[in-house]
Amino acid sequence: MTEDTKQKEPEQKKGGFFSRLKEGLQKTRSSMVGGLSSIIGGKGNLGPETMEELEEALLKADVGLSATHYILEQLREGIKKEKIKEKPEAMALLQRILTKLLDENQTELEFPEGEPLIILMVGINGSGKTTTIGKLSAYWKGQGKSLLIAAGDTFRAAAIEQLQVWAKRGGITCVHQKAGSDPSAVAYDGVQAAVVRKMDLAMIDTAGRLQTNTNLMEELKKVKRVIGKVLPTAPHEVWLVLDSSIGQNSISQARLFHEALGVTGLVMTKLDGSGKGGVLFYLAREMKIPVRFIGVGEQTEDLQPFVASDFVSALLAPESSK
Question: Would you say the pTM of this structure is higher than 0.85?
Answer without folding.
Answer: yes
